[in-house]
Amino acid sequence: xxVSEIVADIRAKSEARGEPVESVYFIxxxxxxxxxxxxxxxxxxxxxxxxxxxYNAKQFVLTTPRAFNxxxxxxCCTLKGTPEVEEAIKLCNEVGAYTILxxxxxxxxxxxxADYIIRFKTVADVNTPMxxxxxxxxxxxxxxxLHQFEYYKFYEDAIQAFGFLENMAAKIxxxxxxxxxxxxxxxxxxxxxxxxxxxxxxxxxxxxxxLCSLMEIQWIHSPFVNxxxxxxxxxxxxxKNLSVLQLISDGRSREEDLRAESFLKxxxxxxxxxxxxxxxxxxxxxxxxxxFNHVILDVALREYITQLAIVRKHPKEVRRYxxxxxY
Amino acid sequence: xxVSEIVADIRAKSEARGEPVESVYFIxxxxxxxxxxxxxxxxxxxxxxxxxxxYNAKQFVLTTPRAFNxxxxxxCCTLKGTPEVEEAIKLCNEVGAYTILxxxxxxxxxxxxADYIIRFKTVADVNTPMxxxxxxxxxxxxxxxLHQFEYYKFYEDAIQAFGFLENMAAKIxxxxxxxxxxxxxxxxxxxxxxxxxxxxxxxxxxxxxxLCSLMEIQWIHSPFVNxxxxxxxxxxxxxKNLSVLQLISDGRSREEDLRAESFLKxxxxxxxxxxxxxxxxxxxxxxxxxxFNHVILDVALREYITQLAIVRKHPKEVRRYxxxxxY
Lengths: 327, 327
Prior knowledge:
The structure is a homodimer. By secondary structure, chain A is α/β, with parallel strands linked by helices. Chain A folds into two domains: about 5-150, Glucose-6-phosphate isomerase like protein, domain 1 (Rossmann fold); about 165-310, 3-Layer(aba) Sandwich (Rossmann fold). Chain A has eleven helices and nine strands. Chain A has helices at about 5-15, 30-35, 35-45, 55-60, 85-95, 110, 135-150, 155-185, 205-220, 255-265, 295-310, and strands at about 25-30, 50-55, 70-80, 100-105, 115-120, 195-200, 225, 245-250, 270-275. A five-stranded parallel β-sheet of chain A has the order 2-1-3-4-5, with helices on both faces. A four-stranded parallel β-sheet of chain A has the order 7-6-8-9, sandwiched between helices. In chain A, helix 3 packs parallel to helix 7. The longest helix of chain A is centred in the middle third of the chain and has 33 residues, at about 155-185. Chain A is globular.
C-alpha cells in the first residue's frame, strides 16, 4: 500500500467501526522524532478535528496520555528498530490503535506490530532520494490524513511540490557546495559551542542538526534555540565570540526569524545564516511552502555536516559510546 | 473569582452556549511558558476529551492552529505584560475564546483582553509564596479544569498537596542551603557550559533553569536535554570535564531519569543530581505526586541560582541587552 492507500484504509476501517479517528500521535526518538516533526507540524497547525502531538517513544510508554485509545493513529518511526520505539508500537498495537511504522529495511522484530509499513532511508547519506526520507514521508502522510479526513484545499499544491523535490535538492546541493557549506565548516573548525536557532516550521530540522549532527556526531556543545524564544533568555549569551547557526524559514513565522537575525548580526560576529529563500523554496507554491522548510533546509544541512566533519577531521561515523557498549 | 470559580464559570457559559470546550492552549514566552508547563503537562496527560498544547505567544499569533476557536480556553501568562503575550491574548479575545490571564500586578494594557485574571509573583524572588507562582497556579487551574470538565478521581489528593507546599518549601530551602546549593555553585564557579537534563514532568522547570537562570542571568551556554532523548544524541559529548545538572523526577517517568543518571555517573565527573525524592516529594500522595515535581524542583533551583550568582560574582539582576535597548 502506498501512503494514500494506507490513509484510505484507516478511514474505511474507522467508518466501518463507526468510530471516528480522534488523534494522531507521532512517536520516535532523537533524529527520527526530529524528522517526523515535519508531519506533526503540518497536522497540528492545519487539522481542525484531530488531536495531534509528538512524543519521545519512552516517554510515551511511561507516561501514556489517557486520551490514547484505539481510535488513534500512531505514527512510529525508527531506522534500525530502536528498542524504545519497539516498546511503544507494541503498546499501541495492544491498545488497538492504527499503527503506522516508518522504518528502515528489515526490522522484523518491530514490523510485526505495525498495521502499515512505510520504508525510509537515512538522511545520514546526502544522496538519499527526497521521497525516501522519514521527513518527506511523514509530511506526505500528514497531507494525506488532512485531506482524506477533513479535506485540504491546497492538497494538489502539496502533491505538486513533492514532485519538485528531487530537482530542487540537486540545485540546493550544488548551491551550498559552491561555498556556503565550506564557509560554515571553516568558521566552525575549532568551535566548542555552536548554537542552532530555528523558527516554528523548522524546529524539527534545527533540533536534529543540534542533537545529532553537532552533539552526537561532532561532540560540539549545542544549545538549541526556538527563535521566538530567543529574546526571552538565551540572547543574553551573545557576543562576538559566539558561533550561531540560524535557520530562517519562509512562511508565516518568517517575521520572528528576521527579528532574531537582525539582533544576531548587530551583536554577533560568527553568525551563519541559512535561509530557505536561498534554497529555491519559492519554486513551491505559497499556499504550502511553509510546510516544506524542514525538507529543504535538511538537504543543505546534510552538506554542512559533511563539510564540518572533513574540516574538523572527525569522521561522521565516529562514536565513543553509541553502538559500542550497553547503556 | 478564585481558580475554581473561574473554571465553573467557563463551564456554565459553555453549557449555556451548548458548545463544549474543545481545547486548552497555554500561551506565553520564555520563563512564563516554562512555568505554565506544569499545568500543560497534567492536562495533556490526563484529559481524555480536551486538545491540549502549549505555544510561544508569537508563534501562536503567527502560525495560529486552525483548530483554535471560541470554544477554546486560552491560558496566557506574563509577569510584566510581554508584548507578544499581549498580541496573543488580543487575538484570543477577538476570536471569542475564554481567556484566562495569569499575570503580575498592574498590566492594565493587557488585562483588558482577559475574561479572567489570576495574579502571580515572580519566582525570581526565592520567598515568593508557593501558591502565588505561575507554576502552582497553572497546575491548580489544570486540576480544576480536569475535575470540573471530566471528573478527576485524585482531585482531593491534589488539593491536599497544595496545602502542604509552603511547609515543604521551607524544608527544601533549609535542606539545599545546608550544602547542596553551595556545592553546585562551587563546582560551577568557572564553567562556561552547563547541560541541564530533565524528564517528562520536569521539562518545564529544566527549560526555565537552562534558559533563564543559566543563559539569561549567568551568560552560561546551556544545552537543555530531555532525559529520554539523551541516548539518542547528546550523550556523545559527555566526558569528565563536562558539567551536567540532572533533575530527577518522581513518578512514572523516573526509570528513564535513572538510566541517564547511571550513565552520567559512569562517564562524567562534574555531575550534579537534584532528585525530587530528596526534596520531600513523598509527603505528597503517590496518586498525584508526579505532577508536583516541577513545583518542588523549582523551589530548590531558586536557591541554586542564588548561590551560583554569588559565587560567580555575577548578580542576578545584571543584563547586557534585556531591558536596556530596543530589539
